[in-house]
Amino acid sequence: MSEPEAVEDGLAELEALPGGARAALEAVLMVIDEPATSEELAAGLNVTVAVVEDLLQDLQREYSGYTGKAPDVDAVGFAAASTAPRGFELRNVAGGWRIYSRSEFADIVGRFVLEGQTTRLTQAALETLAVIAYRQPVSRARVSAIRGVNVDSVVRTLTQRGLIEDSGNDPESGAVLYRTTSYFLERMGIGSVAELPQLSPHLPGLEGIDEYYDASRM
Amino acid sequence: MSEPEAVEDGLAELEALPGGARAALEAVLMVIDEPATSEELAAGLNVTVAVVEDLLQDLQREYSGYTGKAPDVDAVGFAAASTAPRGFELRNVAGGWRIYSRSEFADIVGRFVLEGQTTRLTQAALETLAVIAYRQPVSRARVSAIRGVNVDSVVRTLTQRGLIEDSGNDPESGAVLYRTTSYFLERMGIGSVAELPQLSPHLPGLEGIDEYYDASRM
Amino acid sequence: MGPSIAPTAEAEAPDAGTSEARKAGFEVRLANFTGPFDLLLGLISKHKLDITEVALATVTDEFIKYIRRLQELGEDWALDEASEFLVIAATLLDLKAARLLPAGEVEDAEDIALLEARDLLFARLLQYKAFKQIAGILGGTLEQEGRRYPRQVALEGHFAALLPELVWRHTPEQFAELAAKALKPKDSAPAEVGLDHLHAPPVSVKEQAEIMGYRLKLGAPLSFQALIADAETTLVVVARFLALLEMFRDRVVAFEQPGPLAELTVRWTGDDAGWDSSSLSEEYESGTEAGRSGDGANE
């Protein structure tokens, strides 16, 4: 699968099919039920990661109505920029690619997809989730200290919802540490926690607060 | 929903969205798991069945590369017949419509599916199966509450593996209920679920457990 | 903080009529503020104040008034929750008291400690404020993202048929064991989460009081260090300390300590026969239970 020659053959083979490699990639995207990485898709299609990533970006733009490469448009050139967006979009979340219905149609789609609908998180749950997302891995005691209240039941709820998980124990205190899950990334529509909005603009001049704060804990 | 006038309004409303009624229908088709009838789709989109059936046929032809109505092509008319097929197709199976991967790509999709699969169930899948076996018929939400984690993808895996199946909807909540299949019995080497070993020796005091979970549901 | 409690639009709850608040009881409080910092921020923003330039007197008064109103509601208030509010109220009161004194320079350690307390409180408050803002952003993003539904359909039949036969090695008995494990309630008693490692033998305060009483009755004053020199565990140290407080209350011991953090000397002052440990209050009798107020702090 990783042989360069085999990979070349893979692409040629795909291009011989109706719709080519692009349609083959679409076909695979139809059966995945969790985000698939470009590596997984490349291996499955027997092409290089670079080829898959090009195809993914083409599809992504085409679904959003900005394509210049859709085969139907190739023939007529000038029509390229004016395509209408499709009802779905291809997104790169939690490190993988997946097809989603477009958010404009949420109300309509929601009538068909009752399950999977998630109830809104409470303010307490959101605040707790925010602290865990930015301070992970972090113990309940630490989150509690930042929020000024006991967070045990909120942490349980977030764990049940699959948004956070146990990430082992603190080597010193033995306390359970929590981190966010890839489901959290998926729900947030981001690739990694590094893509979360910056905390610093909200925290003027408080760079040293952690150290200060930890020192004052008993 | 069935008022002719309201239906007219529904169409106008959809056409105001990016991509129009066609994209709205695509959005629904792309995420539904069970095939939907044209009546169901019409009701959900708030348009007449005739409108939905027109749209369905347009989409079906467009996905297969024979469209004359895709908006990008409208502008250039003559290019209509030459579009490439997509990697997916819209099929009417047993009275319902659903999007499937295109059959020409079955080999590639099959290879992709096989590569991602292991022949052994994960611990998470086994535990979920155990909960379903002993609490059937049971909803995903309930299993989720018992296991303390989101079980959606595990339930799909178990369904794909033919170990569990849909057994109708809960009369109260409308949630899909799951039960084990005869294939499960076969693999376990028993004739019916009644032959599953009693739980009590393993879990003293389990009698009140149902009440506990019901009470602790949030 | 129950997860079922949603924030409501009534941001001005502290000003809501008492009768209305009484009617809704516990819910009203939790519904509007997710903690003492939230309350404090609410009060500060109500008065359009900068956190770093808070008019402490006004805010402190309102904070205290709010807590008092909660108490009047007569609802049970979890100890660990209440204590967080009280710690902050106490700090605010200290700061307010310091402000009310004639303006003077920082003179002694107490002033410095007060300044530190103020800075720490404001730092924590600023930090909380940042997370509160971020929480708002997360909430907005989650809601927006929730409007996109992922395609996650069951594998088409002909692909599912391609899957290799499942490896299955479980006997029905093993499977039942697995089920029993999976069905076992995970945290039936949340208050005890994380306390398993505290399975130390119970230590009786009474017993420790008797041991120390015996030693002190010998006549010579003993330092606290000497009294706990043979304590095997921290629990025994704590029990002895509690016992000493009880004995002090019973006026059978006296303490001497030349300065803060200096050595504490304990002297027997009771009559030799007239005291025994049975006068010790029963509340300590459950030994280790004394430490179980809230699990958050025990991690």
Give a summary of the structure in a few sentences.
Chain A is mainly alpha-helical. Chain A has eleven helices and five strands, in the order H-H-H-H-H-E-E-H-H-E-H-H-E-E-H-H. Chain A has helices at residues 4-15, 20-29, 38-45, 49-63, 71-74, 106-112, 123-135, 140-147, 152-160, 182-188, 209-216; strands at residues 88-93, 96-101, 138-139, 164-169, 176-180.
Largest interface: A-C, 67 and 61 residues
What's the alpha carbon Rg of chain C, rounded to whole Å?
A: 28 Å
CA-based shape of chain C: flat
State the secondary-structure class of chain A: mainly alpha
Q: What proportion of the residues of chain A is helical, as a percent range?
A: 40-55%
CA gyration radius of chain A, whole angstroms: 23 Å
**Overall spatial form of chain A:** elongated
Structure description:
The N and C termini of chain A lie far apart (56 Å). Chain A has 11 helices and 5 strands; from the N terminus they run H-H-H-H-H-E-E-H-H-E-H-H-E-E-H-H. Helices cover 46% and strands 11% of the residues of chain A. Residues 68-81 and 211-218 of chain A have low confidence and may be disordered. Chain A has helices at 4-15, 20-29, 38-45, 49-63, 71-74, 106-112, 123-135, 140-147, 152-160, 182-188, 209-216, and strands at 88-93, 96-101, 138-139, 164-169, 176-180. In chain A, the strands form 2 sheets. In chain A, strands 3-5-4 form a 3-stranded antiparallel β-sheet. In chain A, strands 1-2 form a two-stranded antiparallel ribbon. Chain A is mainly alpha-helical. Chain C has 299 residues and is mostly helical. Chain C has 11 helices and 3 strands. Chain C has a 3-stranded antiparallel β-sheet with strand order 1-3-2. In chain C, strand 2 (253-256) and strand 3 form a beta hairpin. In chain C, helix 5 (79-100) crosses helix 6 (109-145) and helix 9 packs across helix 11 (234-249). The two termini of chain C are 18 Å apart. The model of chain C is unreliable at 1-31, 187-200 and 282-299 (pLDDT under 50). Chains A and C meet through strand 1, strand 2, helix 6, helix 7 and helix 8 of A and helix 3, helix 5 and helix 6 of C.
